[in-house]
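worker-3 :: picked Hydrolase
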Amino acid sequence: MLGAYFISPLANAESIDTSKINYLGPIAPQNALKPFETNRKNAILNNLKQSLAAEQASVSLFGNTVKWQSLNKLNALTEPGLQALKFTLGTTRFTPATLKLEGVKEASFYLNGELVSKSGDAYKLPLTTGQHQVIIITESVEDWGKVALDLTSDLEGAKISVSKEAPNTLSAKQLFDSKTVSNLSISPNAKLLIWQTRSYNDKNSNKALKETYIKSVKDNEIVFSLPANASNFAWSDDNTHLVYKSSKVLYKLNLKTLTTSALSEDLSGISNVDFYDNNTLIFTWVKRPEKSTSLTKYYQGLEDRWSYARNKTSVYLYDLNSGLMRQVSPAEFSVSLQDFDNERGTLLLSRSISDYAAPPHMLTELLEYNLKDNSQTTIGKYRTFNSAQYSSDGLYITAGPEFGEKAGKTVADSQLSNNYDTQLYSVSYDGKIITPLSKTFNPSIGQFSVLKNDDVILNVGEEDRRQLYVFDESKKRFNKVKTNLDVIERFSVSNEKSPTLVFAGTGAQLPQQVQLKTKLSNAKSKTLFNSKKAFYANTQLPSLEEFNFTNDQGTEIKGRVYLPSNLDKEKKYPALVYYYGGTSPVNRAFTGRYPFNLWAENGYVVYVLQPTGATGFGQDFSAKHVNAWGEYTANDIIKGTNAFLNKYSFVDKTKVGNLGASYGGFMTMLLATKTDMFSASISHAGISNITSYWGQGWWGYLYSGEASKNSFPWNNAKLYSEHSPVFNADKVKTPLLLIHGDADTNVPVGESHTMYTALKLLGQDVELVEYKGADHQIFARDKRFHWWNTMLAYFDKHLKDQPQWWHDLYPNK
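worker-3 :: tokens ->
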């Protein structure tokens, strides 16, 4: 055994031995191409690293199976080809470390899958809270007896653990990179299923890895592979063909022979592809104007601030037999295709009309276009409208409570409704008879699909969950579909008399699952995919508790608390309070832009609450969002945080942070002017001046049409000024981090600049971080990880008295 091999337990490092290191070798035959000697070194080693990172007992290479073993069991002084070492480093706080590798001429060092370059004669490792996988690939080490690894903590008092076991703490990469099902579509006869997945890895960085298959519903087995980037799937009603789009080309797949034929050369800009009948396709086609070379842009209305405002969308029919196509929507304006009825020969179309006379300062015209005589009939013009579909004797329409002369409104006449609280209506063909169907149904209606018997399956926002319901048309009632998931992300339903349902979703502590239900009323489902087993099997996850309280108006405010998996109630923990506060609740998805589970595993108790104004809790609750701009919301957050701190005695009341984004960022700024109960605050893409957001945000005037309904700077200056955080900036005492994308069109970056200017001039503790090229949300993988790190590092600095991570990300100049 190689007793000479050692890792030196220097200052602040845990004493370890070679039994804590995994060894694999030789990886390749001695005469195999040596990657260190080729210009393809990085590509070869990246591929190899992916295989080595998998938590498997062995690796198959060149037909040979090579098993991992403990390094202390290696007897040879040298081995041919490549070798690899793998181990796990763990920290309970951000810890900069240095690792020296001696006795190896050529090595590639990977920390959590990312290549680390040498700094002098050592590797600098910024270890964040949690566990980190180290992989070292070496070539032809002359004498393993002379190899040494010296691991040193660069932070006094910090400890680094070393283990041969795989990491079991939740990581950002798990949450972002793990494979998820991104698209589902079941065939009309429920025999086949489109199955599209998305994942990420270090090799491809920001580029999503997609896989697209046709599966057999019966046994969940792949029967055909489609192009990875396939989209716009359409099944023929007779179940003989599938049409899809790939790289601007439309293809037709014969489902009996599994042969593919191209239908077009270039149809870039088409979407919403469907079979009008078994021989005809219908789709929408967006035509964009040529780029202007003019020195000026002459605005044609408020909508002209949108980059897509001058695009024109038309509806086309495509004859599969001849390849001919024709535009079938009115040529004079741009439309959206809501639905079609091939038996009646009609299209259901909508279009937006500029009309600034009343909030939300736009009209939607719903019209029916008759393909037989090219006539069109206007069904109605509406201030609130979401979508429409045909039923056998009329239409189903989703819209706000004030649709159809306030047909769905349940709040008092003196109270304005929140039209983001979407309702379901039955409407006659001519639009004259409107019947509200969901007035006594509190959830807010989202995507829906009309079944053969005129029942409707709906994805609804029910408090902080997204659930499936079936509206029973004959009994005029809503029946819940049992899924055992908190948030249904997508669903697809077959066209049978007794339809089959497939759906994907997550829970607050449950990674994605895909389930199949052969009967909507059946409580049992068949699980087709379980992300927890595939990607989180050995991962520790926080525990979850429900926490509700009653606000000053006597209304119960719902919330939940994430507790670290290693919680010790004898210790004191910092806490984070998260909210949105706008018109939508913070749902219970397992992950997303704000990773509550990850924050908890980084040592924070996380409280998420649903303050007054959100949809999904009933119209009385959501209506209080209108003309309030944080009035009720701030009180709920302050009272809820106090109640939370009183119950959870192991939370340090002097170490509580708060954060929110968009309207939630506005709430963070507003709270900073109202209370000093928080020790540090983060506002992402927040609004500091309601007037400038109303006038400059792409959708500012539209959103304000609900949030500030009938109120304008000239008739309600008090609302626009007193509720704007910058007008009360002198009251701010809490350290505040402002984060914004510099390409944000929704809430322009100037909103953060305004608050930053005010607080700097007032001498307050304020930081501003902009993400270059980022819009309202941070999507790109590299930016997402940096953004998550920025938020945690800021809170570590202020709530854990650990500024090292923040200074590592943003060194003092």
